[in-house]
Structure prediction request, 378 residues.
Amino acid sequence: KRSAEKIEVAEPQNKLPCSAPSLSTEPALYSGSFPFYRRPSELGCFSLDDKRQYYGDARALRYYSPPPTNGPSPNFDLRDGYTDRYQPRDEEIQERLDHLLRWLLEHRGQLEGGPGWLAGAIVTWRGHLTKLLTTPYERQEGWQLAASRFQGTLYLSEVETAAARAQRLARPPLLRELMYMGYKFEQYMCADKPGGSPDPSGEVNTNVAFCSVLRSRLGNHPLLFSGEVDCTDPQASSTQPPTCYVELKTSKEMHSPGQWRSFYRHKLLKWWAQSFLLGVPNVVAGFRNPEGFVCSFKTFPTMEMFEHVRNDRDGWNPSVCMNFCAAFLTFAQSTVIQDDPRLVHLFSWEPGHPVTVSVHQDGPYTFLPTWYVEAMAQ
Ligand code: 0WD
Ligand code: CA
Prediction:
């Protein structure tokens, strides 16, 4: 009888203050000195055509061809051709790392860095690294990055958040037109052949892309990543990629010092992160008026962008961006231990919170395709 009384509910063993690992994104934690970042070198490239078909060459590369500086000021109608000469890419198709993996599969035997270099590397899109760089300063949009380790290599592939998907599906008409205008500006500024002239009478097809594949290293993290490049400058002092590449952007015409300040604090951070990662030396901005015409340009050298916020208390700091990215890569490398292409660690971040992790086996988050895994196993 006594024994029955002795039966007690055991003290729960999981009440200890043990929390899952997470990573803070507070800028103050990352303000040390600028970390090592290897000058990015181009390993190769690929192109996607108007039907989004892959080609292992530079056929989609375009040539920087701005209007003559001595002539009249530009007057580019960015709304011309919207929507009758517009073929937008189908954003429902999630390509994940597929095109980059195809390039890697076809070039894995010729990679520099010695045997085993790839096994120690991180493979991803440049755009994913850009999001990591800007995270300590981002107050609006969260992200999710899926990570898998396979044959030693850590692969990182973005997952569209539910909020991002909802926003994309409900994208206001004016925002759709604004997206078109960015591509239309490229058409006004680029020729299909070196020394050729732009042809703004054609269609804008956003399936077409030229992607550079680069090698770099952040701290002790070897990187292999790819990024879309707008054009190459045949007149550039160095013809060697990526230093001959030019990034094109459009932005609202600015009239007050307050508008410039806000531009330096927010837009220039994103432009810097994107072009710095790939080693693109110059960003050419076309400023559009309220009617959608570009009437002026300005070239922003990537290495001079920080000067615009260096003395701004509410500015951004490249060291914070790079140190946070390095810390995230260390966090990811130490979290994803098992080598299994069907196992995904999902890193999730929302503004105001730390980065958290969840684990998924064989589910919808698996992103390394069977064709890649099987061919790499040969
Ligand atoms: O799976 C995904 N979630 C993503 C795939 C997200 C981002 C890119 N991609 C793929 C696409 O295949 C695309 O061809 O990466 C390629 C572009 O890679 P990236 O250079 O790493 O991306 P990012 O630096 O964010 O964007 C560069 C350009 C953009 O130019 P602007 O000036 O707006 O930054 O690539 C275009 C866009 O023109 N772009 C995209 N193209 C196709 N799919 C995408 C996208 N999701 N995002 C940006
Ligand atoms: Ca661009």
